[in-house]
Design brief:
The protein is mostly helical and 327 residues long. Helices cover 54% and strands 8% of the residues. The chain has 2 domains: 213 residues, 3-Layer(aba) Sandwich (Rossmann fold); 83 residues, Tyrosyl-Transfer RNA Synthetase, CATH 1.10.240. It has 14 helices and 5 strands. The chain is globular, with a radius of gyration of 21 Å. The model has no long low-confidence stretch (mean pLDDT 94). The protein binds tryptophan.
Length: 327
Amino acid sequence: MSRIFSGIQPSGDLHIGNYLGAVKNWVALQGRFESLICIVDYHAITVAYEPQVLRDRTRDMAISLLASGIDPERAVLFVQSAVAEHTELAWIFNTLTPLGELERQTQFKDKSSRQESIPVGLLTYPVLQAADILLYKADLVPVGEDQLQHLELSREVARKWNARFSPDAPFFPEPKAEVTKTPRVMGLDGGAKMSKSLGNTVGLLEEPAAIWEKLKPAVTDPARVRRTDPGTPEVCNIYHLHKAFSPPETVQHVAAQCSTAGWGCIECKKVLFESMTKELTPIRERAAAIRADPATVKAVLRAGADKARAIARVTMREVKERMGFDP
Ligand code: TRP
């Protein structure tokens, strides 16, 4: 059976962009593949942070993932820092990765441009990501499209290590990205991608009333100025959210109503709100139940780390052996 690995930073509440772009896919894949889902807390400290906030967010992310349907019986859910082999392998990969490749990563250029003093960890972030994936010899990595460049780097690291230390038969498989149907969810402000740092998100666990307050003013087709103007569904973010949350019949109906000016945007948003509530309410309720039982969350993460560590140790033994270390 192929193995999938994916990671998510414990950076605040999971929002519907993360949910549609990645998490929903993980839930769909977990029965069909051997799945490892990792809360990557070591990645999260490459930017300024507060220890207590990190602790809370790590727990909150675990709760959100479990509430979204990650099933500990079918997927290994764990926290990166609980498995020391991630950083051990990352160090090894650091010695194989050219500086220029890391400086070319768009995410690095983006994040470092906003900082005066740039931590080396921000630069080598993708090396740790390569270690995450290759430690488990994962074949598939379900991610949003913003991670494709990092994935390419992971493949290069695998090729490099294989060529140097395992030239006859590749030891590490070259992991392939598996991009979701909804790879990029736009923010409600009509501009960029939905992202925590831009403050244009809808939280997965937000109360319906709060979601409606955000949907009401959300940007639609900018060319549709008057109620009687027909709209173009494909350019409207609300329509794209319908495609993610509403059943196909509704999506068709919405497109027809929009392009003939049968509905105004507010009517369309009301229908979207209903579809979203239908999908998100059970998740919010499950999250509340899971939150009330912290011992279980801890036990799930501990058991996940134990399973992950068992796989990681086997990989590291062989890696060290081939590299000339006494394993
Ligand atoms: N960089 C990823 C993100 O920000 C998170 C991540 C870390 C990851 N390690 C990974 C994703 C390994 C996939 C596989 O979304």
